[in-house]
Design brief:
The complex is a heterodimer of chains A (about 210) and B (about 750). Chain A is of the alpha+beta class and about 210 residues long. Chain A has 5 helices and 11 strands, in the order ααββββββααββαβββ. Chain A starts with a helix and ends in a 10-residue tail after the last strand. Classes of the chains: A alpha+beta (about 210), B alpha+beta (about 750). The interface between A and B is large, with 48 and 37 residues.
Chain lengths: ~210, ~750
């Protein structure tokens, strides 16, 4: 369950970063985060694609997947892998639906699915750039100002057993996140590259049913 | 007020204290409308962090705090020690080469999903998804049915509550420390809990505190009211300065009783101290009779003392005899109360017979001091006796409706807010606190687990498995675990197992898994570990295991939690054939046992008290008719008390036993005083003395009836009923019976 934080950080941090695209990098973490949060306050929807590469010791080669993600205020999330398998989940408040390869879609209550519950809470926190909440789980520092790059180190003992740190890098200009890298204890890592992101564009309601 | 002997009741009460969560403190935080879940959970973390020594030794907000781990990984590691023959057959069916390929592909694809982030170690340990064979066993660990998880914190099914479970070094019986603990909790709540969140605490300690607070308040009320009542009666009836000497006798007796009881027992319960007000009312009787007799001028002081000393002495002895059986009670509270009362009565007797006459002899006789007792018109004897018989008959009939009440609730005060808090907790989290507990005992942990497993087998065949909370499905005894591991090893050494491993490695290479990817799984295949409580700790089940398998002296107890219902209780009846060495304990069964103990004690005390009084009356009068006359107030008081209780639908509880003893001891005094007066042919203001004695007793017990604590209130009401009937019986019925005696 602790590794869920790895997943959540990946999925959610991007959303927050885009939503809070900074116009001018600030010299200090507090001002950078504040600027990001201010920008995020105007975000109502996010939609985009991603490419996920996992470098795991248990695999001989990197595992690559592609997918789509959607976010809609206040707490609706859709994250789905489209290649090479179709899998994903939708969370809409306290309820959700997930699908896995070879299985029928299943509905669930978020409170009964601790893994997805944490993913959802972190997703939403990142989408809103709720750094007050995020700073409970991570120590956040600024690696560079242009492009903006943040380093997140887990502060909770349970997560820090498995997760070493996260790096979130914005595209030049800081308007969107380019990559999220998750570094696990033991050497495994995951890199997610984001493409074609649209802020405040139309998002079908049916995507969250 | 619960047994401290080796009786089954005492043993069951001791076992009840060992039940899981019996000594835990539960803190429920509720998000009010408008409060977010994040605020709720953050508040819980902050509050938990501030609850510290010396009042709280450990706080837990979720399984992560309990040295948690991955439960599904843990189940995979435990599976070899759990597999049944049926599980092995299922593995043979699942793990064909095609089945292995399909299962491994699913595991590989799972790595792509967001949940796959949490599955890496599980896939290495259990690439074929065999942990589901053990998953069903977790149903038997559902101790808090409505508990869910949100992240690493407890949350209710409706998402509006979170839970902190705390350990405390404060003993449940220590009301002073409990009060400090509650104050500490209140300060921390004020410091960190916002208006949008409501925090409440629930534990057995709060009941102790509520009772202690109520008893302290009641003791003050009782002592004040009884003192003022007796003082008022003295002013009304005596109206003389020397009367002050008589007024001081019960207070002197109370002081002696308190010192003697404190010296013998060390500490006095508040109940005993509260009974001091009653002792005032009892012990004043002797002083009143002596005082009124000496002040009546119906003879010389020596003559008066000669007449009234025997009834006073025997009155005291009969009261002492009535209290003596309480010294044999299994309840320490009863024994202390009896010692306290008897010490006070002895002191009152000695002071009344030896000190008071000396004090009065030096006091001037006031003008107008009455020489006679109360005058009242004589009622026709037959009418009086007839009315009395009818009253006895009706009350005896109603008395058959009285039921014995052994409920724990009637022994202590349960404030409405606590009762509501219990109901709210059960509604939010499920009935974790109200379950019955079945104990199995073993000389060693292994023996206890063997007995526990036999009990589980017995119960699983008769109840739904989700009604049983037991460690047996995931922590079998070592012998059963070994048998399971042999089955596991036999499968993997068979042709089917070898083909499965080969298929796993081949398909793994094809999918891109590295050479050592499944090494944790292969270690399980070759060298499966035994399940221990330490292993359970690594997967977050250690806290539960520790609470359900405990040391008890040199033995080990294993516990199974069950619904507290008659159907479950019937399974443990000897005729149902439960496994030997099991014992079911629950609140409802405890109530039945206490109820049976009450009835047994009641009969024993009543028989002993009446027998002792009969013996003393026989020694005093050597005439069975006089002895029976002296018992008229006793019979009347008891029958009317029970009759009115039956009519009013009041139940008979532990404290009514004490009241019954008191009525016997007091009412027989009135009978002795009246019979001695009528048979001795003297009139030393006896009737006035009996009336005043009755009224002072009512002043003492009347104050108890005002108490909020159910125990004190119960004694007060029942003694008032008895004495209100005993006094008129002494003043009216005894003379009527005497006037009807031939030759009198």
């Amino acid at each position: 369950m602790k590794r869920l934080l790895i997943a959540l950080a990946l999925c959610c941090s991007l959303l927050a970063a885009w939503a809070a695209a900074a116009k001018q990098p600030a010299p200090e973490p507090t001002s950078v985060l504040a600027r990001l949060q201010k920008t995020a306050s105007g975000v109502k929807t996010i939609a985009g694609s991603f490419v996920q590469e996992r470098h795991l010791a248990m695999l001989r080669k990197a595992q690559t997947a592609r997918g789509r993600f959607y976010f809609c205020q206040p707490s609706r999330i859709r994250w789905e892998v489209t290649e090479p398998v179709r899998a994903g989940f939708v969370i809409n408040g306290d309820n959700g639906r997930r699908w896995r390869p070879g299985e029928k879609p299943q509905s669930f209550e978020v409170s009964r699915e601790p893994v997805l519950a944490v993913i959802a809470s972190q997703l939403i926190a990142w989408a809103r750039c709720d750094f007050a909440t995020l700073q409970r789980d991570y120590g956040i520092s600024v690696l560079s100002e242009e492009p903006v790059s943040l380093k997140l180190v887990p502060s909770r003992a349970a997560a820090s057993k498995f997760l070493d740190h996260l790096n979130i890098t914005f595209a030049p200009g800081g308007q969107q996140v380019r990559t999220v890298e998750v570094f696990e204890k033991g050497g495994d890592s995951t890199r997610i590259t984001f493409l074609d992101t649209v802020i405040n564009g139309p998002v079908e309601e049916g995507l969250f049913n | 007020m619960l047994p401290d002997d080796r009786s089954q009741v005492a043993e069951d009460f001791r076992l009840l204290q060992k039940a899981p969560f019996a000594k835990k403190v539960f803190i429920d935080l509720e998000a009010r409308p408008g409060a977010s879940r994040e605020t709720l959970l953050a508040t819980a973390e902050q509050l938990a962090g501030r609850l510290k020594s010396p009042y709280f030794s450990r706080t837990v907000c979720g399984p992560a705090d309990m040295a948690g781990g991955n439960i599904t990984c843990g189940l995979a590691q435990m599976l070899p020690s759990l597999v049944s023959g049926g599980d092995v057959a299922t593995m043979e069916r699942w793990l064909t080469p095609e089945g292995v390929r399909e299962r491994l592909r699913k595991s590989y694809e799972r790595l792509f999903t967001p949940e796959g982030w949490a599955s890496k170690e599980l896939i290495r340990t259990d690439p074929l998804g065999l942990n589901v064979l053990a998953l069903g066993r977790l149903r038997c660990l559902n101790l808090v049915p409505k508990l869910r998880l949100y992240g690493d914190q407890f949350i209710s099914a409706d998402g509006r509550h979170t839970l902190i479970v705390a350990d405390t070094p404060v003993a449940m019986t220590d009301s002073a420390a409990t009060e400090r603990m509650v104050q500490h909790f209140g300060r921390q709540v004020k410091a960190v809990v916002p208006e949008s969140v409501r925090a409440s605490m629930l534990s057995g300690h709060l009941y102790t505190l509520a009772n202690a607070v109520a008893i302290k308040a009641d003791v003050s009320l009782v002592l004040t009211f009884s003192t003022l009542g007796i003082a008022a009666l003295f002013l009304i009836f005596l109206r003389s300065l020397p009367g002050l000497f008589a007024f001081l006798v019960p207070f002197s007796a109370l002081a002696v009783a308190t010192v003697a009881a404190a010296a013998f027992y060390g500490t006095l319960s508040a109940m005993t101290v509260g009974f001091g007000g009653v002792l005032l009312g009892i012990s004043v009787d002797y002083a009143v009779l002596v005082y009124l007799g000496l002040r009546s001028r119906s003879g010389s002081p020596a003559e008066v003392l000669s007449d009234i000393s025997p009834p006073v002495l025997f009155g005291g002895l009969t009261t002492l005899a009535a209290f003596t059986p309480l010294l044999l009670s299994v309840l320490p509270g009863h024994r202390q109360l009896a010692f306290f009362s008897m010490a006070g009565i002895v002191a009152a007797l000695l002071i009344s017979l030896f000190v008071l006459p000396q004090a009065l002899s030096s006091a001037p006789v006031e003008r107008g001091a009455t020489a006679s007792g109360t005058r009242h018109p004589r009622l026709p004897s037959r009418v009086v006796v007839a009315v009395w018989l009818v009253l006895i008959g009706v009350c005896a009939w109603q008395a058959t409706r009285v039921e014995f009440d052994g409920r724990l609730r009637s022994l202590s005060l349960i404030p409405d807010r606590l009762a509501r808090a219990e109901d709210d907790f059960a509604h939010t989290w499920g009935g974790a606190r109200g379950k019955a507990v079945a104990f199995t005992r073993g000389a060693s942990p292994e023996e206890a687990l063997q007995a526990n497993a036999r009990l589980y087998d017995y119960l699983a065949a008769r109840l739904k498995t989700d009604e049983i909370v037991s460690l047996a499905p995931i922590l079998p005894p070592a012998s059963r675990q070994e048998a399971s591991r042999e089955r596991w090893a036999a499968f993997w050494q068979s042709e089917a197992g070898k083909r499965a491993v080969a298929a796993l490695l081949d398909e793994g290479r094809a999918l891109g898994f590295s050479e050592g990817a499944f090494e944790p799984f292969l270690r399980l295949v070759r060298h499966p570990p035994a399940i221990s409580t330490e292993m359970l700790s690594t997967v977050g089940l250690g806290e539960l295991a520790d609470s359900m398998v405990v040391r008890d002296g040199r033995a080990t107890l294993a516990m199974t939690l069950l619904p507290d219902t008659p159907a479950v209780a019937a399974l443990f009846h000897p005729e149902a054939g439960p496994p030997p060495g099991t014992r079911l304990v629950s609140q409802s069964r405890f109530q039945e046992e206490v109820s049976a103990a009450i009835q047994h004690d009641f009969v024993r005390f009543l028989v002993l008290a009446v027998a002792a009084n009969l013996l003393l009356l026989a020694v005093l009068y050597r005439d069975w008719r006089k002895a029976l006359c002296a018992l008229v107030p006793v019979v009347t008081g008891l029958v009317v008390m029970l009759g009115v209780m039956g009519l009013a639908g009041l139940d008979f509880n532990l404290f009514n036993i004490a009241a019954t003893v008191l009525i016997i001891g007091l009412a027989v005094d009135y009978g002795i005083f009246m019979v001695s007066k009528l048979s001795g042919g003297y009139d030393h203001a006896t009737e006035r003395a009996v009336l005043l004695c009755g009224l002072t007793t009512l002043a003492g017990f009347g104050s108890l009836a005002l108490a909020k604590h159910p125990a004190m209130h119960s004694i007060g009401v029942s003694v008032i009923l008895g004495i209100c009937a005993a006094v008129p019986a002494a003043l009216l019925v005894i003379p009527a019976l005497y006037r009807g005696e031939p030759g009198e």
